[in-house]
Design the sequence.
């Protein structure tokens, strides 16, 4: 695939599709809370605050238009989680889907894990395009025939039918987390997966729902001494014994499950010393890591904190190898962002298929791409205005001071209610899915 | 100065967030509240540093007076409530901004003085904390510094660490001077008024305490105060006094439903992990048990 990020590079991003209501009045349940491509990129899953999962499937490339990649159309929709009430603690458990992770495909059916704050579910999505017809004892509509009227016997045969996609919950992994689950990650061994909440990480076997192993526990004996929480966790893409977890203090710990049963002792600690000149009331908040993602190669990992994206080489713990500023102009506005709670937004980040470009979201429905090789970055916008089919996205620029040029947007005009927290990149092609509040935009490179 | 106003504002906002988090759907979010409490602590450190900056200054002035021949006037200045004296000193104008402050400053002054015995155990508290404002936030030495005042509890966490952390070390810096002052005054001055000053201050502090607390909080404070004093934990007293200056902002945040807040506060104070968020009975004893505001906040999770 072409290296892509935009700028001087040859990739130009075009609008492809937008999913979701056009209505400006956003229903809370429709707010998209997670976006994930499956391993082949054929399926794209989204989860929302209402506990629903919507899966889009890419149409096969039409032979008539070989230059056009297939469109994504709704494949399956189901209610994954329902609101619950914990009677013991008098707490309501939100049905919002926090994360979706696909399992590698092993047979005709697709499997994915979806989780809310407390419960993880394994869903099987399977197709049915044939049905048996010609029973001896049943009519076509299902009514039973009177056996005395049966005079001949026939063998039922499968007849084609309209495609039906069924989603069924195969496993429910419940009651293992006291705190809110923030991450799930499937192991490369395809047999286990981890789930992480604020203070603990559990290891599950996909087949076994009534028990899990606790592999990380950072809960202090005395809760008064709590200083940090776990914010994200992920298994290494190739090494089934390795996983990382990030903390609210801006550190990442890499753990090896072979070392001990309880991985409280990290194998590696990735931390960059804080720049004292940037010290403010909000230093702790903006250093909290909101997402951590391994590169496809497994050599690097990327972390996202409030203002920047950092690429770490797993072999170097002292500092990141690359740092990209996402929206440094917000540094002077931290107090206002604290007041309106925007400073607590958890932005995600993602790699492209060959690890040459990384992407993350920002405010005003902007999202940013950083090309690691060409050292270029571009800011694009997901908006209805630039939603004409195959229209090329124009790079955007935020004016940080001085005279505002034409087409630039000043920091004060940014709409902080329009934020892009969730983005996903197709594992092979230059197709990206960008979630605004309640819409899913799909962009692809101009072929 | 601007820092203090800013810090105060941030503290108020943080309190509001912590309060609102209790009514949010999905339960209390540990991560967000942890971050908010860290901000609260930073702001409080800056706020107190400025406070103590003012106290140090006034204490220094006082020392000079002690050594000088203006004992009587000094005494007047040290008498709580007489705000006129304060503005006369350099840099104290900023301390006297809030009309509550002068009395608090003086009370703290006395508190600091009385607190010398507590200083020892504060030595290990974050000494470097104040050096650069809100620099390194260390783990609060919570068990030792736990205001019992309900105001602080409400603010609880407000204060959360803020109270447990810096305050103990704050006085450390400022304590030097007042004590020196006392020593000097005692040695130099035969004026019978001198030695009384601290006592007066102390007594005055307590009464001011009661009055302020009573003004701000219904009923309960009255129950709290005697207990507070009986415990004779000057750290608490002092930090609680720091908090009373925030009461006005607290009140604006929480409106008049202090009791309501306390009940929901209590409701969110389980003994162990996020259990029992029943809005139980507000019991002063229960509040006393959860002295450490940090614990009340975190344990709630």
Sequence:
């Amino acid at each position: 695939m072409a290296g892509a990020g935009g700028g001087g590079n040859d990739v130009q991003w075009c609008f492809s599709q937008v999913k979701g209501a056009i209505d400006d009045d956003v229903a809370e349940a429709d707010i998209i809370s997670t976006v994930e491509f499956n391993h082949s990129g054929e399926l794209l899953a989204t989860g929302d605050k209402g506990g629903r999962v919507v899966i889009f499937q890419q149409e096969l490339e039409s032979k008539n238009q070989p230059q056009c990649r297939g469109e994504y159309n709704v494949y399956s929709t189901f209610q994954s989680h329902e609101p619950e009430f914990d009677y013991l603690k008098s707490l309501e458990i939100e049905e919002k889907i926090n994360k979706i992770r696909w399992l590698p495909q092993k047979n005709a059916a697709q499997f994915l894990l979806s989780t809310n704050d407390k419960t993880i579910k394994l869903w099987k999505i399977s197709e049915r395009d044939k049905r048996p017809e010609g029973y001896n004892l049943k009519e076509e509509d299902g009514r039973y025939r009177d056996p005395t009227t049966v005079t001949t016997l026939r063998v039922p045969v499968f007849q084609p039918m309209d495609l039906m996609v069924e989603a069924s919950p195969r496993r429910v992994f419940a009651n293992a987390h006291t705190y809110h689950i923030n991450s799930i990650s499937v192991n490369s061994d395809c047999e286990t997966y981890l789930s992480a909440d604020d203070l603990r990480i559990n290891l599950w076997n996909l087949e076994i729902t009534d028990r899990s192993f606790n592999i990380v526990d950072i809960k202090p004996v005395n809760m008064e001494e709590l200083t940090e929480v776990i914010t994200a966790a992920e298994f290494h893409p190739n090494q089934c014994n390795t996983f990382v977890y990030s903390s609210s203090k801006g550190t990442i710990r890499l753990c090896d499950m072979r070392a001990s049963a309880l991985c409280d002792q990290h194998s590696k600690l990735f931390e960059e010393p804080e720049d004292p000149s940037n010290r403010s009331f909000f230093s702790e908040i903006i250093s909290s890591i909101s997402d951590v993602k391994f590169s496809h190669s497994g050599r690097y990992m990327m972390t996202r904190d409030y203002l920047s994206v950092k690429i770490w080489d797993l072999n170097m713990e002292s500092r990141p190898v690359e740092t990209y500023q996402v929206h440094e102009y917000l540094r002077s506005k931290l107090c206002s962002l604290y007041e309106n709670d925007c400073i607590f937004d958890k932005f995600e980040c993602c790699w492209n298929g060959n690890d040459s470009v990384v992407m993350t979201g920002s405010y005003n429905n902007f999202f940013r791409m950083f090309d690691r090789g060409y050292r270029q970055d571009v800011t694009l916008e997901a908006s209805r205005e630039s939603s004409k089919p195959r229209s090329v996205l124009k790079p955007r620029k935020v004016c940080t001071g001085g005279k505002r040029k034409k087409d630039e947007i000043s920091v004060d005009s940014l709409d902080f209610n329009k934020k892009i927290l969730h983005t996903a990149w197709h594992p092979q092609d230059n197709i990206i899915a960008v979630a605004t509040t309640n819409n899913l935009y799909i962009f692809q490179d101009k072929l | 100065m601007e820092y203090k106003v800013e810090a105060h504002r941030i503290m108020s906002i943080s309190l509001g967030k912590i309060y609102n988090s209790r009514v949010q759907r999905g339960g209390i979010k540990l991560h967000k509240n942890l971050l908010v409490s860290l901000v609260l602590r930073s702001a409080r450190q800056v706020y107190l540093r400025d406070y103590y900056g003012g106290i140090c200054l006034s204490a220094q002035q006082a020392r000079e007076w002690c050594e000088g021949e203006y004992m009587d006037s000094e005494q007047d200045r040290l008498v709580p409530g007489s705000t006129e004296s304060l503005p006369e000193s350099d840099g104290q104008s900023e301390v006297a901004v809030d009309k509550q402050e002068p009395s608090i400053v003086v009370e703290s002054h006395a508190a600091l003085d009385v607190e010398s015995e507590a200083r020892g155990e504060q030595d290990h508290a974050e000494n470097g904390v104040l050096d650069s404002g809100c620099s390194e936030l260390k783990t609060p030495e919570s068990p030792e510094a736990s205001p019992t005042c309900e105001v602080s509890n409400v603010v609880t966490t407000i204060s959360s660490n803020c109270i447990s952390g810096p305050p103990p070390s704050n006085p450390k810096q400022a304590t030097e001077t007042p004590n020196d002052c006392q020593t000097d005054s005692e040695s130099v001055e035969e004026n019978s008024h001198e030695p009384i000053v601290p006592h007066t201050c102390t007594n005055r502090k307590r009464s001011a305490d009661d009055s302020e607390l009573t003004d701000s909080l219904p009923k309960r404070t009255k129950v709290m105060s005697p207990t507070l004093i009986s415990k004779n934990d000057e750290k608490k007293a002092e930090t609680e006094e720091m908090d009373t200056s925030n009461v006005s902002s607290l009140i604006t945040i929480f409106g008049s439903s202090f009791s309501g807040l306390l009940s929901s506060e209590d409701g969110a104070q389980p003994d162990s992990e996020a259990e029992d968020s029943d809005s139980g009975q507000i019991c002063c004893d229960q509040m006393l048990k959860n002295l450490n505001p940090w614990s009340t906040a975190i344990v709630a999770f």
